Amino acid sequence: MGILWIKFSKKLDFVTDKLVDVYAKFRDFFAPGWIDKNRSRIDELKLMLRAFNRSPLGVFGFILIVFFFFLGIFGPMIAPEPYWELFRYPRNMPPGWMGHVFGTDHYGRDLLSIMLWGARVSLVIGLLVVALGVPLGIILGLIAAYYGGAVDEIIMRIVDIFYAFPALMLAIAMAAVLPTTISSFLYKVPILEAFFTTLFGIRLYDSGNLGPMLAVILAMVIVWWPGYTRMIRAVALSEKEKVYVEDAKALGLSDFQIMFKHILPNLSSIILVMVTIDLGSIIILEAALSFLGLGAQPPIAEIGRLVSDGRQYWPDKWWLVIIPGTFLFIVGLGWNLLGDVLRDVLDPRTRRSIEFGLKERPVYFYDIIGLIGDLLLIGGFIYIVLVPVDVPGAFLMSGPLIIAFILWKGLDSIGILRKFRIGKILGVITYYGTYLLITPYLLPGAFNGFLITLAGLIIKMIRDELETMRSGAE
Amino acid sequence: MSNKEIILSIRDLYVNFYTYAGVVKAINGVNLDIYKGEVFGLVGETGCGKSVTSRAITRLIPPPGRIEKGEILYKRNSEYVDLLKLPEDEIRKIRGDEISYIFQDPTSSLDPLYTSGYQIAETMVVHDRAEWNEAWKKAVELLKETLIPDPESRVKNYPHEMSGGMRQRIVISIALSNDPKLLIADEPTTNVDVTVQAELMDLLRELQRKKGTTILLITHHMGLIAEMTDRVGVMYAGNLVEIAPVDEIFAEPLHPYTKGLLAAVPNPLQKIDKLVPIKGSVPNLIYPPSGCRFHPRCPFAMPICKEKRPPRIEIKPGHYVECWLYAEEVKKKGES
Q: What is the pTM (predicted TM-score) of this model?
């Protein structure tokens, strides 16, 4: 596996280098001399992408996210059937019924089409929450860190107040109160109404649903920004102490210039990583809210709503929960993998420690061990996710993994989950809490899958041990 | 000396730091005149307040530090202004334009995300000295002046692509970009190796001669002081204990602390068996010693040293010392 990846990632390097060159030529076309002026930047960009190529998980996550964006943007256009024709077919038909790949949903629509419509809604909601919440959080965090003293106190106490409310409760309250206000406002501004219906890919006829949808977005923004303020403040505090900030001050730059031209860009990689990881969580939180009945109402296609509608037929008609649940899982997994690798790649120090001199070398014993480990890992994954028929409960990788882990470690172990190397995968999954509640009895079959995965992990660890022993001997 | 024009005058400066442990009286009544076109050296141990004094000039003291009282008169357009009373906007115009700094650590005083050319040009643009295109061209010229090889390609480099000495040259270029009247170099060569150190000092002196910039050089390196400066101020525990022309400091140091400081530095021309350290340790400035702050370590301490702070005495023209030993002498002279 390792060797295969080396060969493959060298091919990827070729592709990414070409991409950067094309981009540089593009810039050079509009601003002649750009290539010459930015040679260092181009090299750095190439290096960054090469470092990214070294990580199979990162590339895998990136592919998932590209796929998700593709579905989000083109989903409504390629969806074979409209979302608004209810009860066209019998309800809750299994996958493959009469050529419907995913079967039909609670309202007798083609599930595949509904998923495609729903992908757009998920994507737009996730991006809007980030676009509104992140700048607010960043600006307040920067101001708090830079000025310190009373300003810092005031901003951080407001953050504390928002933290003191349980996030989900606050979001539920906002989403329950806001819709009427927003709807009546949109009614007066038809341009905005048209804009948002296009954005969400819904009919103008369904614009009554915009109120609840935007309310959910606003609710999530309100829940989300304090986290950014806290994080940005923390990192900006240490950044502010660096000599170049003092230097900038001594050179007569204004506070505004120092904050936004020198401190903020230096935090950009941290922000990007946090946004990437959060996008997955936001989409899942949004699904959780619509699972609880907030947000868009039928017939608007909503992934969380699909899960909640399907739950009453569980476990006889498992596909109603499994298919949308797996979609959410994949999106969350993709963002997490991507974010995790970006963290290593965007930081110049860790980027430089990534090994580039990958040479051709003979196949060692530990390579074979590693391959077996990888196969077991993937096998376990597939067993859990894709072989659920004889395992009535394993509708998500999350469910079994988490339940097994909790049984093993006790109930307060959910916090521990995040610390593991595979914890990023588990970390997302903790957000599935809502689904877990409805399926506590699924364990036995899924446990096999978990054991396979675990065996794979242990074998991988043995492989790493062998590798260090070998390099130590040399 | 007095016929020269004073460019900066620090009068009775007090700076305190309000820490959790207590109030650190970091600067305790410093008086200092700097003449136009000279190189003034400020020496002293770590923590004696050299850097705080230099930062106080343009009010760059970070909280919890606070300038308690004093005046810093700066000659601006043939008129003296008190920098401590200027509004924030005005002082910002002076920083980096008329008074600029070189800090000690070249590895971290450049923003890692911008090219060196950008950072040099930015200073000019911020102070409305030039537009971006023009500033960029000037940056190349400045790099040429600071003897960086191949300046056309160096302006496009990021800080991590350069060596320590190169970076410090960039920092110097930034500081010089607006032709400052006063350049404050705070231990500019502490973090670069010796050969580069010599080159940088040569460079600074060259530029100073060419442009007539006034330089306030802060260091604890006596060699640099001897090499570079015209006049020297010796600081101890927040007091400026002795000011003298550089030759006199080395030929006949007056203050016991100055004597101790010179005895603690090896002289390459003489074979010495043992360097003589100054006995005792630096006082805690939360509870500074009464009277003369040096008296617990002073071999010549007298009863009066404990009680009253010594006055500033001009022993020779331009040679000032704060010490009771000479107060007696002056008195005797006056009597006889």
A: 0.74
